[in-house]
Write a structure and sequence with these properties.
6-stranded antiparallel beta barrel, Elongation Factor Tu (Ef-tu), domain 3, 6-stranded antiparallel β-barrel, 3 helices, mainly beta
């Protein structure tokens, strides 16, 4: 489980194509300080398992499902990535409950800068739109954000200087893909309401 508060802006140092899988190696001096083999790290919002730890670098095995369902398959050497270690029971929940299970990918549509923040508009798969509400939570490339508005094309978020400086969202350009994870609580509520309706014959 994660919080969507990015700890470090890491860098892709190697991608090894294994046919039906890819070995991803990233550099992240902060997140490697107390990581062990088998630990979970959110990489651009996707929960990956540490398979190799070497000084300030971590290596992950990405299966075909991960490559097909997330934006990680589009990574190249030198790309920056958002990194977050799994939250501990004693840690602060600064964002919202994030599983690291990507629900789909979207595309950055446009950026509108202002003096102190920036509004970013993104597309999302149509089947995810029902889980978004203004002032609700969404995870974009592993960053916990508050939805500003939901429209026909997708949704918008406002990025403060901290987010622009310390995550990949400050670097993304129109056309770039992003990983999206909707609030898991919304999915549970939907399921319970559906089961309640079926049980009552409505």
């Amino acid at each position: 489980m994660f919080t969507g508060i990015v700890e470090e802006l890491g860098a892709v140092v190697a991608l090894e194509d294994q046919g039906d899988a890819v070995r991803l190696t990233v550099e992240g001096p902060l997140v490697t300080t107390d990581v062990k083999l088998g630990d979970s790290i959110a990489v651009n919002g996707c929960c990956l398992t540490v398979s190799v730890r070497d000084a300030e670098q971590l290596t992950f095995d990405m299966m075909r499902e991960t490559l097909d369902k997330t934006s990680l398959g589009a990574l190249a050497e030198g790309d920056r990535v958002n990194l977050e270690r799994a939250v501990t029971p004693s840690g602060r929940l600064g964002g919202h409950l994030v599983q690291g299970h990507v629900d789909g990918t979207g595309t950055l549509l446009r950026r509108t800068p202002s003096e102190h923040w920036e509004v970013v508009e993104l597309s999302l798969p149509a089947e995810l739109a029902r889980y978004l509400v203004p002032k609700g939570s969404i995870t974009v490339d592993g960053v916990s954000l508050t939805v500003v508005d939901v429209g026909a094309e997708g949704f918008s978020v406002s990025l403060i200087p901290e987010t622009l400086s310390h995550t990949t969202l400050g670097l993304k350009q129109p056309g770039d893909p992003v990983n999206l994870e909707v609030d898991v609580i919304a999915k549970y509520v939907e399921k319970m309401l559906q089961e309640r309706g079926e049980g009552s014959g409505r």
